[in-house]
Design a protein that fits this description.
Radius of gyration: 21 Å
Shape: elongated
Strand content: under 5%
Order of helices and strands: HHHHHHHHH
Distance between the termini: 48 Å
Oligomer: single chain
Structural class: mainly alpha
Number of strands: 0
Number of helices: 9
Length: 256
């Protein structure tokens, strides 16, 4: 099961071109949804306005070499290591979900466009999916602020939950479909249809979910690092309660 490409068997149900076109459409939806979100909310204008202000008012000039260093630190600390989180449980859950999503999405694209059976991509697909489920369900049932701190029901759903719920729905249905397909179950096609619906909701709802935040947050973190480096403190939103503990750009980085 873990070594089989689940998309290869779809040749009996759909031509490979159909799934390839579907993947391209989902990528287009993410790009279009992100652009709509930027224009509608004015995120890009707000970011560049702050960037220009910090550059013009900063008492110190930041050279090209230091900008490159800050970009690398942003990528390693704030993006790959999720340095913005001071709570260890939230950070681990976020890392599992984020890196699991990257593994899952990349391996899906590779398996849809390349049906080679002698590869490690099916195992990476399963690994990424399991990481998403562990991190996502752990967050949903045990870490969310309104559940863990306020005692609300974990089944209380709000608009902001659209991204995590559609992601968990897509991956859960996808893994169930893969298991049923391996066992030649008659219900495999039903779960495949549900999997496609949940995946479409995930990528088509970018303008209304938190999906686009993964593109905004690195830019905001980089701007904060630059503002600290040139002597101006960014006025982009910072932490609500206490300083971060992992060298995030939301506080003055300790390793300059």
């Amino acid at each position: 099961m873990l070594t089989n490409n689940p998309f290869a068997a779809l040749g009996d149900l759909l031509p490979p071109l159909v799934m390839q076109v579907y993947i391209v459409l989902m990528i287009v939806l993410v790009a279009a949804g992100t652009l709509f979100d930027i224009v509608h909310k004015g995120s890009a204008k707000y970011f560049f306005d702050n960037w220009r202000k910090s550059k013009s008012k900063g008492p110190q000039q930041v050279g090209g070499g230091e900008l490159l260093s800050l970009a690398v630190k942003t990528g390693l600390v704030d993006v790959l290591a999720s340095g913005e989180f001071c709570n260890a449980r939230r950070r681990i859950a976020h890392l599992l979900t984020m890196h699991g999503f990257l593994l899952y999405a990349i391996s899906t694209v590779v398996m849809v466009f390349s049906y080679s059976t002698a590869s490690i991509w099916p195992q990476l697909w399963w690994l990424g999916g399991v990481m998403i489920l562990v991190g996502g369900y752990w967050f949903w049932f045990f870490i969310r602020v309104d559940v863990a701190a306020e005692g609300n029901s974990p089944f209380r759903i709000m608009h902001a939950d659209l991204f995590i719920l559609s992601l968990l729905g897509s991956v859960t249905l996808g893994l169930i479909w893969a298991v049923l397909q391996t066992s030649a179950s008659s219900g495999a096609n039903v779960f495949f249809g549900l999997y496609v619906i949940a995946t479409t909701v995930l990528f088509a709802s970018v303008p209304w979910s938190k999906f686009a935040h993964m593109f905004f947050k690195p830019a905001a973190a980089f701007e904060k690092r630059v503002s600290y480096a040139n002597g101006t403190r960014s006025n982009l939103p910072g932490p609500a309660d206490k300083p971060e503990q992992f060298g995030s750009a939301r506080t003055a980085p300790r390793h300059y």
